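Hey, resending since the last one bounced:
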Amino acid sequence: MNKIKESILKHNGVNYLIPFMLITSCFALWGFANDITNPMVKAFSKIFRMSVTDGALVQVAFYGGYFAMAFPAAMFIRRYSYKAGILMGLGLYAIGAFLFFPAKMTGSYYPFLMAYFILTCGLSFLETSANPYILSMGSEATATRRLNLAQAFNPMGSLIGMYVAMNFIQAKLNPLDTAGRAELTDVEFEAMKQADLQVLITPYLIIGAVIAAMFLLIWLVRMPKVQESSKQDGLFKTLKRIFLQKRYRNGVIAQFAYVGAQIMCWTFIIQYGTRVFMAEGMAEKAAEVLSQRYNIIAMIIFCSSRFVCTFLLKYIHPGRLLAILAIAATAFTAGVIAIDGRVGLYCLVAVSACMSLMFPTIYGIALEGMGEDAKFGAAGLIMAILGGSVLPPVQAMIIDQGMLLGWPAVNISFILPLLCFLVVMYYGFSTAREVR
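The structure tokens again:
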């Protein structure tokens, strides 16, 4: 821990303490955005009387923004600086959040998707800038541990996002269930929809103001620039070079699989838990609220596990620990599929303990030793977040089937995260073998 602290405080005569603290706070800010959004799949489905598949378009728009803006962000950062990229990210984040107000005024679903897309274009800038910036703040030998330490603050923002979603959105939405809303007249439904949308947009407008304040703070604080080489290759030459590296190329695939698994597990824990509790005789509204509490418990476990895993990295090779956790995640996900009822839900919560290490560790392993190429390498890994856009709608389509082969479709749908964890397990073992 002292080595991490020393490498952050000072490296090559440059003091990184204040930049580290400010950039680490951005990790919490995008964690908030991610996890206030996951429960919105269920909320939008109810507000607009849509299927789970249509509601999952929220995730398509959200993670599609990451994909679309990653390489433009890397080019922007390469031309200007990490600080400029972070400011651009915060600006787009705030604009996207404020666009929830005109989206609400239209009363239509699709303007919300555009607001999410713009917001996550900002998150793409933030993550493409912040992750490699943290890696550069000290010795390369402790870079993966340093990134895990910074990433430990991401689930803290996620917890706040979940808490806000549960207590200030879901709990305040009209309690009438999906079946009851289908029986309303058009006038009654429109009035209820407008009231629910006002509830939904308020937290986004508040976070927009917080992000604007953070933008001003970082803009005013002087941050040291990372040393760069004077000679820079063109985009395509750089991309060809980095994608020829097997460790990096496989890292992008593993990150795609991991993010898809994470978003599926956290998004559809609401559907999974709601079905379990309704089968016990609970009303839909109460079942949704209780399911969200389980989601918060999962995030607390995720957050706690991140600190534990960061400590274990002092003694266990990152690839080996990644593989061990992926094996455990696969086993728990198999329990989610095969065991119906609360035990299956407990398995789904336990998966979060295994996921805590995965994103920053894959990121750190894939970028190790890349030097200046890390800027474009980071963009490829951020584009891999597309897994959170592509895979949840596929899982949603399975869930919409209701029952498959005599078993709840929501259980069977977790075959997708299970396959993703197998990909992560392979990447962990393959990179661990490199150090033998």
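The domain at 2-222+235-433 is CATH 1.20.1250.20 (Growth Hormone; Chain: A;).

Sorry for the duplicate.
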